[in-house]
Structures are given as C-alpha cells and as structure tokens.
Design brief:
Elements (H helix, E strand, L loop, with lengths): L1 H6 E3 L5 E2 L2 E2 L2 E3 L4 H10 L5 E4 L16 E4 L6 E5 L4 E5 L12 E2 L10 H7 L6 H4 L2 H4 E7 L5 E5 L9 H7 L8 E8 L1 E2 L3 E7 L6 H6 L6 E5 L4 E8 L1 H15 L2 E3 L16 E6 L5 H5 L4 E5 L4 E6 L2 H13 L3 E6 L2 H4 L11 H11 L15
Length: about 375
C-alpha cells in the first residue's frame, strides 16, 4: 500500500458517486502519474471524475474504492493552428480554451472537462453541423486497467491508425480505463452568427433544410413552442440567410440564443432522458405533452419525465419510430428500479470488450449498459 498511499488521500464526505462513498481520491498531474496510480490500485474499484457536471449520469457504481480526479491533468499540450489540430489534457475545462480564431466546436455545460465530455459522448446544438465528440476526436491517450499507457490516432486529420480506439472510449462512461489526453480537429471561428427564432412547428424543418441556408443548428422546445435556427459564416452571408429564414418562418433575428438553448429541460432532481430518433419522428416527440427540447436537425432531443410511466411511454415511442431512449439521470429513489438504458443491440459484444479492456471489472462497475 506504500505507493498507493503516496498517490492518494483519504476521501471526504463530498467524494461519492451516486451516493456511493469512495475510500480514496487520487489526482494525477500527468499521464505517467496516472499510470502509476492505476497500477498501484490494481485491486481497487475506480470511478474517474472530471468537472463533475455529468457525474450523476448513469447508475451508481456497484462498488467504489478510488476516485481518480482529473482536474490536475489540465492544459493544452499543443495547438497546431496550421493543421487545425489541438492536443488537450483530459481535465481541461472546455470553457477555458483559448484558440484564437479557431474553435473546438463542442457545446458543454460550464465546468465540463475534455475527458468527461468524451467519456459520456456528450454534445449540444451544434452537433448538427460540426458533429459530436466522436467525430472531432482524432487521437487519444488512455491508461488501461493494468496501468499500461496506450495511444491511438495522431495529430493529422487523415491519420486513422488506431482511430477506432478513440471511438471505443467515446461514450464508454469511464468503464474501459482512464482518458488522459485527446487530440481534436478544430474549425475556424465564424466571423458572424445569428439566431432566427420562431413559433413555427417542428414540421418546418424539411423546409429549412430545403432552403439551403446551411444551418449550424435547428433546436426546438416544447415548453415555449419555439423553434430556433443558428446560422454562421461571413457577415454578408449570415445577413442574407437569416433574412431568408426570418421570412420563411415568420420569425425574428437575434444575436443571442433563446434562454432554453442548449440547456436540459429537467430540474436538478428530476428524471432526464436522451431521445434519438429519425428526423421524421421529431414532431411526434414534441407533441407528446412531455417537456422535450433539443435538435430537430439531428434527431437528438432531451426530455424531462415525471415518472417511470412517462419514461416507458417516451421510450416506446422512440423505439417504434426506429430510435432509442436512455435515462441519463434520475433521483436515487427511483434510479434502482428504473431501466436506465432500455434495449441495447450488441450487448454481448460490449461485454466482450469490457472483459478484454478491464478483465477485473474495476472501472466504473455497473455504470454502463447491462451492468457493465
């Protein structure tokens, strides 16, 4: 235990995940320290914690000995502006990035870290145009469950060697190991932008797409009955395209988004769901009477469910429409009796991958699909 004691501190009352308290907390400042910590803790169960903005997502772990806090794993390793590439340590807050006239086009809540965003596969309104973390990630460094450091991908967009490893870790909820560095593809920061806000129904989306205005995002909110479109580009182009949308949707142009833009529709202690459906099914979700909000242009929406009955109703609607629905967060009183993931194709393959990458099932046990 000597090495482990040097690399950790005793946990406090704030060091828990889903109400399950940890015994120890480690906060490595480099990939090398992280590898040493994981190797020293090879008999312990582990959950990785970044900014904590999504730590309440998913089921509680079955057991928790050690929290690995990544907030000392911060900073930009490299910014190759000419190649539109950046290398970031996993604990770096996304809202701290200083990339000049370039951007990492990931929408995230304040305080969210690079590693946490990748681990949960989170994305926001602009996913419609720029893609998700899975699309923007071109390289990754991870520490596997035995302390081995593995790198995949590279710092060149066309270099796809090992890229599948990055895809594998994206959205894995920390169940396959610890992410320490990520390489991302960047985009130029647009010179101008505008939001066109309207009370047009979600059925207007095909007309928006047919108008060839190249929207960055199309968002809807059932509570306000509002539809909002983001357009970006040159000042002249944005002015022309937003004017066209203003006329098409009988809306108004604003420099600022609606107050609900990019925010989850559920209260802090509520049941929050992620709904993914074909674009043709978006209007049906908006018209259910539930609090539904999200991308009408990408078919990824978020809902606040009042109870388990509403969860089942929304999930059935998604599945019938060719999509799926997962519960991201729920109060402790209902989490244990709630099927958070629903039917998931490929579960047997996921179990084999877990067995290969984490044979002892030490990382985030029980936090993922099928109790993985």
């Amino acid at each position: 235990m000597g090495a482990l004691e040097e690399l950790t501190r005793p946990a406090t009352g704030d060091d828990h995940v889903g109400g399950v308290p940890a015994r120890l907390v480690g906060a490595p400042a480099s990939t090398e320290e992280a590898a040493a910590l994981v190797a020293a803790a090879r008999d312990l169960t582990v959950v990785v914690r970044g900014g904590g903005t999504k730590l309440h997502w998913g089921p509680a772990p079955r057991a928790l000995d050690l929290i690995i806090d990544t907030r000392r794993l911060t900073g930009m390793v490299e910014h190759a502006a000419g190649d539109l590439i950046t290398v970031l340590r996993a604990g770096t807050p996304l809202d701290d990035l200083a990339l000049g006239d370039q951007q990492l086009a990931l929408d995230a809540p304040e305080g969210a870290t690079v590693g946490g965003t990748v681990a949960t596969g989170a994305s926001g309104p602009r996913r419609m145009h720029y893609g998700t973390a899975r699309d923007l990630l071109i390289g990754i460094t991870v520490v596997r469950s035995d302390g081995t450091v593995t790198k995949a991908g590279g710092k060149v967009v066309k270099n796809v060697a090992g890229y599948d490893l990055g895809k594998l870790y994206t959205g894995s909820y920390g169940t396959l190991g610890l992410i320490t560095e990520c390489v991302f593809r960047l985009h130029p920061r647009p010179a101008a932008h505008a939001y066109v806000r309207s009370t047009a129904p979600a059925q207007a989306v095909p007309a928006i797409l047919a108008a060839q205005v190249a929207p960055t995002a199309i968002e809807v909110d059932s509570a306000t009955g509002e539809l909002a479109v983001l357009v970006e580009g040159t000042p002249t182009g944005v002015r022309e395209r937003s004017a066209l949308l203003e006329k098409l949707l009988a809306g108004e142009v604003s420099e600022k988004p609606p107050s609900w833009w990019g925010r989850p529709p559920w209260p802090e202690d509520g049941i929050g769901m992620k709904l993914s459906v074909p674009l043709s099914q978006v209007p049906a979700l908006i018209e259910t009477g539930s609090a539904v909000r999200g991308s009408a242009g990408a078919g990824v929406l978020y809902a606040a469910a009042r109870d388990i009955t509403e969860v089942e109703r929304l999930r059935a609607l998604c599945v019938r429409g060719g999509g799926h629905a997962v519960v991201l967060t729920a109060p402790a009183s209902v989490r244990d009796i709630l099927d958070m993931w629903g039917p998931v194709p490929g579960l047997a393959l996921m179990r084999r991958i877990k067995d290969q990458f984490d044979p002892g099932h030490r990382f985030a046990p029980g936090r993922f699909v099928g109790g993985i």
